[in-house]
Amino acid sequence: MIERTALITGASRGIGKAIAARLIEDGIKVIAPTHSEMDLESNESIDQYLKNLPSFVDILVNNAGINRIDLFQNLSDEDLFDTIQVNLIAPMRLTRGIVQGMIGQHFGRIVNISSIWSLVSKPGRSSYSVSKDGLNGFTRALAVEVAPFNILVNTVAPGFVNTDLTRQNNSPEEINEICKKIPLNRLAEPEEIARLVAFLCSDANSYVTGQCLVMDGGFTCM
Prior knowledge:
By secondary structure, the protein is of the alpha/beta class. It has helices spanning 14-25, 43-51, 77-105, 126-146, 164-169, 172-180, 190-201; strands spanning 5-8, 29-31, 59-62, 108-113, 151-158, 212-215.
């Protein structure tokens, strides 16, 4: 079995933590930089981290993201720029720094974690929706460019997931109302998202690329 190395952003909690655990379970070495090691709001920090990256990366999971909720007319420039930076520019810069090594090795798996709010939206999500829809577009464009080098690039777009953040932002009553709008009548578990990501990152995935795979229990079908 070939030993693979994965770099995962935002792996300290929630979906990212579940992805890291699943990949480790699958025998993959995981690099999970902390905020102090790599600040995604700083291009200089990203570039410095890439410069000091100790090993070749076979798998990149761009999971970290921020969501500053406010009506568009109330968004400050800082809120707008920070959201685009962390959710879109940072993944693109990380990918640019890592993909050349994948091309040289003629192997790579890149998974970008997007959101259902890249496909549908609601009040207060303008900057978040723009950033995540941009990530979907980046996925499609890059997938076409690097396909000849056996590099597969995909996006996973989760819906409502049972994370600490979801529980912090919504009361039990609000979560109950959310579940009523989901055909499966429940939130996703982080481990369910992680299983799909693990497949897309694995050798078992040999032909899925350029796709945005929605995991929302049927929410966006309604």
